[in-house]
């Protein structure tokens, strides 16, 4: 295990140097969209028992993730408990991840806030600390008013001002609304909007999003390992999968089988991932994800309140969902 | 076009002779489950302007469907307006379809009613007029009480007494409830329950249903052309697709591509079917399905009230959903 | 207890004589709408263990109900398990109730079916056996298409042809849809539509329905004892309350207190009815209603399958909801 | 109209002096719960066209509200666009309102955040600038995990540490979840939790909350003018009503009629408030509320993006909902 001092050193590389390097690589890519295809874990944020950010544990996780063939990491997707972080914490976590992670791995940072102005500012800050792209969730508090008009306006404002490419993010289980398809199609034409992470799981919608944005170099990512293979079958090019925090190699293997067209093998693997995936997402949520991470050699750590630890009976259920599929 | 007399003759084959033939073929199959893999249109029921059953138009549709490589027909799925038929009409329609359809095509008859006893009786009558299998929808009026316990009891009672194999049917858009996965798994063990038609479209659930029933010879059918390819990718073996009433050959072609593992081609075709499919199902419903049938050379006919004809603007939208995908 | 023979005699009065008497009283009322204000239990339908209709038990319940100051009975509301009765049974039950019940009590018969034509016919049959009015539920299977246009058409057709006044019935917990307010307002103008039973419990909607139909002699009934007092406060004139099957006198007492403007006393009583009411409706449903009836001296009897008897733990919960409010 | 200088002076009273005064008045009340009965507008937050806080307009609104017999103001309820304010802005607005408002009017400040720790801190800050009580909304992002256990823990932590009394806040239209009744009952026993603002509108639930917390001096406020009278009828003691931003005197008049038991007059007034209320809440939302405020002599100002101004046709609809009830 690493000492605290060593961890601090890992994060010590000057940010300004770092950002300069990053800008050069970005300019090299001018003229074409950022390729976001591949698998990303939306990383969990470990907290201490006192609910403080545990950067040490985070760093150890990053060391392990660096060895898995992920395309990159999503920092502060829903599984990162971003609504429970302060603005400063959100930026700091992304900054540290970028400094720690090998340069060839993408960092996609969740920068969504409820207001457009806050999202614009957070997006700039995330880019400022090295995010390669931002993931922007649909605002949702005034859900009755978050129609195509409002959401198109919101994402356009954010994309217009963002220094880095924008990925749209629709996650109805948390927000209570889906980014409407007509908004997706319009926004896909924006030069700075490169894709969509769709966590709703409506495979018809995912296929349609691919179909309706053909020729626009718009990339659709499955928002869960539960429908990853099906999403690939209809044209998605990657996935942001909570389960990849736990079974990262397996999710990458599923990607590989899909990309290589080895559908029979893919299917066998996909099947075994459905229940573990459901357990750490819709059934038992982030606290279960963090528990499972512990079982598989990662640091989950505590959740911030009001999220509560899973109960003993939930823990048993969680274990069953992994063991009955041969993972434990 | 056929005269009324000719149509009557088509239905003239003695039912008792017919049923005897059928029973023999059934007994030959003893020891193995009925193979229901393949594509089925859940046929629409044409009515006259006075809302009477139009058997003449039905027969002409059947003649055309007989030439398409369907595995069979579903008679009185949701698209057949079965809740608007009397008990006698329900049986009569199935009887006529069976008599008209070539013997090598399966007739799967919707026999679901709200009460178990009515479903048992309707199932017997459907078998009595030659249905090869029955499709039994979840009862739904007392949805708060239709939990796993109640539904397992219901389907078990029906399957115990049914002379023909039973296919479970979950269609939450109409019923407001999904057949719970634990009930599916338990019911899959019943020797007379051969499969599930899942119209909910949750592809994770479809994959899980296949996975959890492996070794039980339990067959999962996609309940819509919108997610047909994705369903095949995770192990479904067929589809009951409203759109097959209109674009039957194309849906069968999609099946063939999936079965042969030609996923690239399948994807291209699947994409073009999503919008027409949505238009005739969740967006505009049965009245739109019937309108589209008219455009493609079939008889849709009127709907029974309270279903209303689509409006002029809906008709234009419907046309666009077909034409923008190259079908009109 | 009555012998079977006695019960049969109770129903022996000739129907044709009866209907003649009824028509006369109806014609006397020509020129003004039927007054439906007051309290009605939507009576449960007792079945034997073999799930056959138990007319004997029904009759004994009716004898008891006749002594409670109900305005009348609703026969085949949702609590009557009407979707589980055959057409013949539905008519027969109404017929027997009408023959048994004192003439000064109204019989409002549920005549709703999914299709307009079936509802028209059932309405005629219900009137033919003496129903004073019919309660017509919104059709709901094709819920995506049951918009204002379709529902207005449906209810208008039914009311046009009905020999007796029509009461609209909105019960979203079962049907998954609410009768839209604009349809309510339009339908309230129909001379043969006298009121609305609203079981949704949105008190704002109930107040608005009263407000928007002022001057039309349109009567709004609360569909549950849980919000009966609140409904009176905003202008409802009665209630169809499942709980009145069990605590009929108390529900009538609540009505009296509201009508007399004794709101303080009403509130005390209302409070004590909320939990028992919830227990026999949305929490535990018809099987709990029938169980509670047994405790209070009525015959609940069995439910028809797929409704299942309540479990032991549900029974304890049910008992608690009555006892903690001082009723057991 | 006031000049900018005058407005600044209004806010000039030293905060520390103010807070000292406040603490004394609070200590005088030791031993009994804060009386929160009465009517509160959840005030809108006026923005300039550049979406900056417009304190001048806010102050002018406050001058007008001070003359209406409100019990106080709710600052940063849902209608205050609080999710669109920064932490600093949230505190500053409350501070200014407290300094401007006559001392005998209560300031209830919305201090809810997603995490418990942020809510605790915001609560302290709100108290620090003079809030008489805080209104704490249910956290909602991880709605699947926000069960009774989590929410009880959250509110208990907040109430334990809050310098001022806490009012629970359930607003399912925005949050997608209701504070469960068992959590309400448990939390009502906390000495520092004085009431519940329930915006869900389930009148049965409101009655039950009153009933189940009798003897605990727990006060229930209706969260909307649409069901204010009904809420009074079942025991609520006040209301936090968006419509009071526009028709404040009328909402207070409705309160008075209810409190005095003049139910007939109350009903007439209640009816005329339902449609205007729905228009500025669930139908057209905050942008419509702000538009209507302009018509009635208050400053609505712009909304922050992504909230969009209402369209011309929505504006006409809004106007109709007021004019058809005699308010315009």
UniProtKB/TrEMBL annotation, chains A, B, C, D:
Protein source organism: Gadus morhua
Chain's role: Catalyzes the final step in the metabolic pathway of hydroxyproline.
Pfam families per the UniProt record, alphabetical: DHDPS (PF00701)
Keywords assigned by UniProt, alphabetized: Lyase, Schiff base
UniProt record similarity statement: Belongs to the DapA family.
Catalytic activity, EC: 4.1.3.16
Keyword Lyase: yes
Reactions listed under catalytic activity: (4S)-4-hydroxy-2-oxoglutarate = glyoxylate + pyruvate; (4R)-4-hydroxy-2-oxoglutarate = glyoxylate + pyruvate
UniProt protein name: 4-hydroxy-2-oxoglutarate aldolase, mitochondrial
Residues forming the catalytic site: 169 (proton donor/acceptor), 197 (schiff-base intermediate with substrate)
GO CC term, one of those recorded: mitochondrion
């Amino acid at each position: 295990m690493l000492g605290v001092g060593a961890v601090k050193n890992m994060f010590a590389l000057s940010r300004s140097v770092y950002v300069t390097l990053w800008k050069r690589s970005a300019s090299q890519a001018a003229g074409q969209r950022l390729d976001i295809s591949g698998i990303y874990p939306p990383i969990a944020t470990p907290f201490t028992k006192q609910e403080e950010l545990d950067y040490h544990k985070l760093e150890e996780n990053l060391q392990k993730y660096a060895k898995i063939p992920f395309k990159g990491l999503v920092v502060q997707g829903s599984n990162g408990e971003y609504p429970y972080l302060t603005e400063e914490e959100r930026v700091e976590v992304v900054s540290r991840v970028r400094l720690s992670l090998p340069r060839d791995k993408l960092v996609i940072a969740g920068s969504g806030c409820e207001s457009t102005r806050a999202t614009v500012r957070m997006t700039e800050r995330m880019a400022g600390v090295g995010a390669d792209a931002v993931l922007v969730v649909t605002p949702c508090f005034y859900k009755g008013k978050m129609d195509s008009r409002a959401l198109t306006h919101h994402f356009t404002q954010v994309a217009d001002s963002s220094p880095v490419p924008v990925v749209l993010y629709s996650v109805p289980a948390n927000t209570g609304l889906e980014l409407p398809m007509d908004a997706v199609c319009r926004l896909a034409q924006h030069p700075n909007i490169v894709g969509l992470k769709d966590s709703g799981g409506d495979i018809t919608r995912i296929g349609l999003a691919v179909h309706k944005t053909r020729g626009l170099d718009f990339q659709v990512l499955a928002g869960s390992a539960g429908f990853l293979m099906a999403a690939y079958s209809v044209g998605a090019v990657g996935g942001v999968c909570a389960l990849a925090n736990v079974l990262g190699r397996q999710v990458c293997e599923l990607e590989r089988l899909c990309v290589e067209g080895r559908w029979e093998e893919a299917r066998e693997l996909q099947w075994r991932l459905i229940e573990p995936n459901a357990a750490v997402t819709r059934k038992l949520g982030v606290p279960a994800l963090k528990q499972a991470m512990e079982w598989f050699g990662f640091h989950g750590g505590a959740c911030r309140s009001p999220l509560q630890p899973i109960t003993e009976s939930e823990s048993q259920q969680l274990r069953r969902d992994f063991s009955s599929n041969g993972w434990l």
